[in-house]
Amino acid sequence: APRLAAVFGSSRAHSAFAHPPSAFTVRARAMSMFGSFGNLFGASGPSLCADIGEPYAKSFGGWTHHRGTIKEDGSACSVFKFVGNAQSDRRSIETARNGAKRLKLTRHPNVVHLRESLEVEKGDEITIYVVTEAVQPLEEHLRSVPSGTHQRDEYFALGIRQVATAVSFLANDCKLVHGGVCMAAVFVTERLDWKLGHLDLLSDLQNVGRGTMGDARICHSGYVIPDQYKPEEYRRGDWASVPEGPPWAIDAWGLGCLIQEVYRGEPLGRTDQLREIDHVPQVLLKDYQRLLGSQPAKRYNPKKLVENSSLFANKLVETIAFLDTLTLKDSIEKEQFFRHLPRVLETLAKAPVERKILPQIAEALEFGSAPALAVAPMLHAARDLPDADFAKKVTPSLVKLFASSDKALRVALLEHLPLYVRHLSDKIVDETLYERVATGFTDEDAFLRELTLKSTLSLAPKMSQRAHQSLLKHLSKLQIDEEPAIRANTTILLGNIAGYLSEATAKRVLLNAFTRALRDAFPPARTAGLMALGATTSYYEPNEIAGRVLPAVTPLVGDVEKDVRDRAFATAETFLDLMKKHSKRLEQGPEAAAAALAADKELARQKERAAARAGGAAAGTKDGAPGAGNVLSWAVNAAARRIGRGSMDIA
Fold first, then answer.
1. In this structure, are residues 194 and 186 in contact, taking their beta carbons and an 8 Å threshold?
2. Whole-prediction pTM value?
């Protein structure tokens, strides 16, 4: 039976970092002893957490890079696989183990993130698996990047900065030498982050000085790196001189090689190609030449490249760098940044906006480091996403944000609801979102209650009858709210959602609610009741019109308010015309009249539903604009736009 060995618990594994980092945490997450024993003695043998898929075209240092899928949740990952013979490939196996161990120990945003590692021994054959976040080789990724554009150069600058940051971390903070920095060692994530990988040769700087007498893997297996990626001291194996120079000397050269490869669009074939500077941007040329200096002591520190290079003075890099350090910014800086961000996003390439900046903003809002003002740029970044991508990248954040107690955040989400409601599935709205939105109906702040009321119109088409029953309970309370504007707009909302209610519910609720509004002391509330009655004529039987509607409407033709009187006359005439038409049909017999009435009602309801669908989103706009078609306009709008101010103006 195959024997499973914990790569990092093995007696053959090397020691951890001799110099702990100062900037980011480098920590060992040792494989559980009991987990190893469980796999070792389990009936099914060793088990990897991922299913292995198709390999990428190129390999590096004996590793094959496969696409993979995490078994537990079906998410994408990468699986690196190394196979060697315990007798003939001993040196290569030790180097591969070093790479897996170092990847496990190193935790940095710009280093490939390891999820699991596994070593399987079967006879003389040793297989090492390393499961990481889903990454794509940089060389393959660059083929899909449009060439010759300003936006491409901004994106390249961002990627080079990320790799330089990783190299700086290893050299300056950890005193480690990577030994293989080049295009083949860089990978790109779904978020378009460039990350450094292939840590097989990663060695402690002081151990390098001992050469082949020590355990620095760069001294034993440096041959796996082609000569064009090596400075002179590396090529000739002058290991004793390496610790005498700066810790970044070898990898600064590799970083220069990477820059050449990125801008020429293909791997280096010869060392003399480094002299070809036509591809290198003029703004980067001086730094590029410093990285490739012939004297190790004078090679440019990657940390200074990150901090000082003019290449990184562009909107894409600056935007992402600000978001990366958002927790360190004060409220004034954040407000200014997010207020101008939508205009900045217009100038940036679509891919990094949707795949990098959008998730950053969403996460910042979720964790509370971004102000409510960030909702607008988040939705701006997501505006062109297909529904499936929106559901994956944005909807989960929106659902979480609606659970927040931050009123300013709730206001921003409600005001912008028409911009994203079309992306939300009926299931999400009905089972999750509506319940969280509905908490605003009982909020102590009148402005938030009113905004919740208006926003519900955008959700109504996606709500089930169960949710509508819940909504009606809230509306029955809002119709007697202490704020007169809320009472008026509750009536308008009822008129607008009538087409989404079941016929039985509509008959039970509408007439009672609208005739109650006609008795309200607030004139716009009475007007709203008249408007709602006139917009829902298909729900009332002739006997109800004669016995309840007209007796409730006609007293208002003498109302003290001219607007109410005018609306009352118009509404009364509408219902009188209906009664006249019905009276003539009765001359042909009750059955003929009933059939004609049913046909008229069905036609009227089709028009009402079409108008509601066409105008539902528009009627919920943040400035209270009326909807399209025959959707009723809001009777009253709030004059104030801030939480805590409840004064109202008649529209």
1. yes
2. 0.82
